[in-house]
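Aim 2 progress update. The chain analyzed this quarter is reproduced below.
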Amino acid sequence: MLAGMLLGLAASASWALANVVVQRAGRAVGALRGLLWAQVVGIGLSALGAAAFDDRSASLTPAVGGWIAVAAISALLAYVCLFYAFEHGRLTLAVPIMSSWAVIASALSLVLFHERLTVAELVGAAAVIAGAMVVSRHAQRAEPAPGGTRPRWLLAAVGAAVGFGVLIPAMRRMSPVFGSMGTIGAVYVADLVLALPLAIGFRIDLRPPSGRAWLPVVLAGFFETAGSVCIVLGARHAPLTIVSPLASLAAAFTVLYAWAVLGERPARGVLVGAALVSIGVIVLAL
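Predicted structure tokens:
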């Protein structure tokens, strides 16, 4: 149990760093271009890790093939929305909304893995949802789109939460076949199989980055992959209903970094929402 909780915290720290470099990668080369090459880096890293450390306990079956398809679709939604939201929005607003993925993942785990939630954990889930809604409402008032509609990056943040909420349980289903680290690479490959035809059809620039633009792209791939590995490993030692909320503490770490280093000054409503999200994930993990 303790190992799973520590790995969940390690995932949150890794993803907090990833959030920062993803924003820089998206602004340096564009969201979709940055996503493509960050995932190429992630595929290479996960292949090395799988060769060195992974052991596989199951073979590929049609059911696992279905989970691969689910993972590919949810990963494409999650990562495209993640890069887009960070390219166009502010970390202090986008990240708390995305953190509601932990509630979705926990809810799916109740059905798929027959895990149980206590009353306290239900209260924690409610706090996460309430916090995300507070931040969302503030973002809509502070940065409205033309016509008073929701800004696209805000909708992208919601899309990322849904995508990651479905992706994490799907990865758990895949890990016996591909291994903890190989699963990450398998998800990235499946994601790119879907994304590349779409990118080519819409004539999206997919050239490799050049010069200094490579650094945030490589770091984005590294920290995203490291966080995913931590949460898959953590799910082996503790229920996903505990590991997922601890991993979503990345929201608190990212908001703190954006405030202290990037100079973003969130309004009181955003701070209240981020605090609710953080308290909720802590309660979920207790």
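The chain has a mean pLDDT of 85. The chain has one domain: 2-285. These observations will guide the mutagenesis experiments scheduled for the next reporting period.
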